[in-house]
Amino acid sequence: MNSSSLSGSFGLDTSMLPKHVAIIMDGNGRWAEKRLMNRIKGHEAGSEAVRTTVRTCREIGISVLTLYAFSTENWQRPKIEITALMTLLKKFLDSEKKEMMENNIRLNAIGQIEKLPENVRKALKKTMDLTQSNKGMLLNLALSYGGRSEIVDMVKIISAKAKDGKIDPDLITDEFVADHLYTAGMPDPDLLIRTSGEMRISNFLLWQIAYSEIFITDTLWPDFGKEELVKIILDFQNRERRFGNVG
Ligand code: IPE
Ligand code: IPE
Ligand code: MG
């Protein structure tokens, strides 16, 4: 490794960066409960960690960052918590527009966007339109997202095409399926991070994480910062990815 391939301030090998980092941002509620605060305070603190993480990934040179912000199952939470989360999301979209433009970040959303409140959908569309030509990093927000719904939607699209005689079953390959998911055109996540220690996937990117390197940290999402993210990427760079082959 020559010194020019080192990302100086981070000590990372820039030739071995994960292209796509996906994060299950978990633990906001526990962070607040530990402080005898309302869960909503935890979500507020969590949105600061989102800002820091987006900035850090852009600085490091990550191409795609997918953040799991709200799952299809999260609609079961108390209405007051859902409303607070949607308000925070709208705030984030409005306040980060400028920084996304300055840092050449393109915003995208995956999930059942039509289920989000209208003001959130409008803010989302506005920021997505504004940032659509940015090429520095793709920030992909998983909102009202469920891996199973994504697969069901894919099956519906493909079977409608088959019914109309537009496709031959022999054409259905891994690539074809991937092209009909919400993440069409994006590389699969190389690195999947989950905060707050839970050893589960919670319906996130079920197809796409087939060969992702998984890193679970006990840190609660609001406490997740730049230093830890860099450490995790360093750990990723020291793993041997075999993809089923021999070392
Ligand atoms: C993650 O934190 C945020 C969302 C799922 C929206 P949680 O709210 O799940 O926090 P815990 O898991 O209860 O601590
Ligand atoms: C996963 O966290 C969803 C998001 C981070 C948006 P949850 O807190 O909803 O997951 P479970 O309930 O612990 O599986
Ligand atoms: Mg949780």
List keywords for this structure.
247 residues, alpha/beta, Undecaprenyl pyrophosphate synthetase, six-stranded parallel beta sheet, two-stranded antiparallel sheet, 8 strands, 40% helix, disordered N terminus, binds 3-methylbut-3-enyl trihydrogen diphosphate, binds magnesium ion
Shape: globular
CATH topology: Undecaprenyl pyrophosphate synthetase
* Largest sheet strand order: 5-6-4-3-7-8
Low-confidence stretches: 1-6
Main beta sheet strand tally, sense and closure: 6 strands, parallel
Give a written overview of the molecule.
With 247 residues, the protein is α/β, with parallel strands linked by helices. It has one domain: Decaprenyl diphosphate synthase-like (Undecaprenyl pyrophosphate synthetase, 3-Layer(aba) Sandwich), CATH 3.40.1180.10. It contains 7 helices and 8 strands, in the order E-E-E-H-H-E-H-E-H-E-H-H-E-E-H. The chain has a 6-stranded parallel sheet with strand order 5-6-4-3-7-8, with helices on both faces. A two-stranded antiparallel ribbon has the order 1-2. Strand 5, helix 4 and strand 6 form a beta-alpha-beta unit. It starts with 5 loop residues before the first strand and ends in a 10-residue tail after the last helix. Bound molecules: 3-methylbut-3-enyl trihydrogen diphosphate (2 copies) and magnesium ion. One 3-methylbut-3-enyl trihydrogen diphosphate binds next to strand 4.
